[in-house]
Amino acid sequence: MRIGELAERAGVSVRSLRYYEEQGLLTSTRSASGQRHYTDDEIERVTFIQRLYAAGLSSRTIAELLPCVESPSTENSDAALERMAQERDRLNDHIADLTRTREALDALMAAARAHRESLRPPVAAA
Amino acid sequence: MRIGELAERAGVSVRSLRYYEEQGLLTSTRSASGQRHYTDDEIERVTFIQRLYAAGLSSRTIAELLPCVESPSTENSDAALERMAQERDRLNDHIADLTRTREALDALMAAARAHRESLRPPVAAA
DNA sequence: CTAAAACCTCACGTCGATGTCAGAGGCAAG
DNA sequence: CTTGCCTCTGACATCGACGTGAGGTTTTAG
Fold first, then answer.
1. Looking at chain A, which residue has its C-alpha nearest residue B95?
2. Which residues contact A3 (CB under 8 A, 6 or more apart)?
3. How many whole angstroms separate alpha carbon B23 and alpha carbon B53?
4. How far is CA B6 from the centre of its chain?
5. How far does the CA of B61 sit from the C1' of C27, in Å?
6. Alpha-carbon distance B20 to B46, whole Å?
């Protein structure tokens, strides 16, 4: 498929796909006229890239991890696996932090609701 | 305390504190010469602001929520509470997404390790 | 009193993932 | 062949939370 179709099916912009290629996250075969062509597998790859971006990884970091995804355990595997564990730990810490923040928001909302109910007469719970 | 001390105790830069004030997230009393002064309470407020930034909220969104923190249930409380619930939900979704990503990373690491062990002779687990 | 350190207000620089525009070529349908 | 849509490269624009430096005042330590 060509770049437009991949973009639509993966739910990203054409611009982003070209950017991923520029960053070494994605490859494409070129037709004689220079147009990029992709296989269906690339859809999954793109969504995974998006997932890593959403997890706060940079292009450079993703580029370090993806070879490990492609071909498990080549030469780089040792370093890549360590890098991966490191990013997993960072992500884990981040999740814990966000969870605490969510709890803080919950507490604030509970306090606000309680305060409001202390003002209005306690009608049947809406 | 003055801005430098608050910055150090809250673990942020002086620049950030001025920026927060510019965005309406933080207030300060000014001395005759124009220097900012803060109370101990502001430390907690700043760390909470940082927490919200880490949760992916923008300055503008934080500015909408903080009044609700300051004085629970003023006039704005109804809209602010809804805004808060909305952000909590967004955060919740984000946490779920990150958790899935963490699981994906775990799976990848497990696969890489398994692949490696299938090559090297199964020595005693290091 | 004096020098160092902290503070003030602009205001421009940065970084990373994308948007967007320009100018040119490719490809299928009528 | 032409019309219209897709694609190409290249390059500048954007946005948000700061970093950083200039140029000047205030506070503090000796």
1. A95
2. A14, A17, A18, A28, A35, A36, A38
3. 13
4. 18
5. 47
6. 9
Among partner residues A84, A105, A119, which is closest to B73 by beta-carbon distance? A119
Question: Chain centroid to CA A21: how far?
Answer: 17
Name the pTM for this structure.
0.84
Half-sphere exposure of B20 (CA within 13 A, CB side): 26
- 8 Å CB contact of B81 and A113: yes
Q: Is B64 on the interface with A (CB under 8 A)?
A: no
Q: What Cα–Cα distance (Å) separates residue B50 from each residue in A11, A16, B23?
A: 31, 30, 14
pLDDT tens for B50-109 read 999 999 999 999 998 887 666 655 555 677 788 889 899 999 999 999 999 999 999 988
Q: DSSP state, A55?
A: T
> Cβ contact (<8 Å) for A54 and B112?
no
3 state SS of A30: strand
Query: CA torsion sign, A53 to A59 to A65 to A66?
Result: positive
